[in-house]
Amino acid sequence: MQSGCHPARPGESVRMQSGIGTVLGESSLISCYRERPGGVLELVAQFNRYVLKTGRYTGEIDNAHGNLFLTIGNVQRNDSGLYFCIVRASGTFTPGRSSRLVVTDPKITPSVQLFSLGSDERESGWTESVPAVCLVRDASPLWGRVLWTIPGISAEPEPGSDEVLIGPDGAYTVTSHVTISAEQWESGGVDCRVQNNATGEIFTARKTNTQKGIINS
């Protein structure tokens, strides 16, 4: 079970909770993992009741409430990922809750890309619906959702299936999908945007009726 998302900036320390619901005895072994892109698991630290620090990783045991805390010091962008710990005691393995760490670097300017799937294969005069995709890279989970402007629709449309991905380099990427008519796409004026809630800055990608590509602003 996932317990939450922990946004951070490079150099900070992050403390994540992993409720295990069991008392840790003297022989208990705690193994903490990070899930890398592609689902590959990486063992980052191992603790017991007497050794609770491994490099930048520190464990904290709260037997009274069945909790384990994992603290990572001096986090960097490539530390982003899904973390969870497993307790082994008397031949039994007990998994704790997972937490997602997202380290965003304010020095990196986010990018927003807008494109239509299969636009190169479609012929002129295409009348079927068009899948439009907005790709926001180097965003933050603290930002607002991806919003769309579509010609002929006065109200803000509901976003389609939004997906979140942490890349191999730790970049937090959000992909938003909507399906619109070919006429709306080709007429221009379609845009997608996302707002940094901390600064109020808005990042936008817009398509005009003369361009198939992407405009960032």
TrEMBL record:
InterPro entries: Ig-like_dom (IPR007110), Ig-like_dom_sf (IPR036179), Ig-like_fold (IPR013783), Ig_C1-set (IPR003597), Ig_sub (IPR003599), Ig_V-set (IPR013106). It comes from the Eukaryota. Residues 110-208 form the Ig-like domain. It comes from Acipenser oxyrinchus oxyrinchus. The lineage of its organism: Eukaryota, Metazoa, Chordata, Craniata, Vertebrata. This is Ig-like domain-containing protein. It holds the Pfam family C1-set. Signal peptide: none annotated. SUPFAM superfamilies: Immunoglobulin.
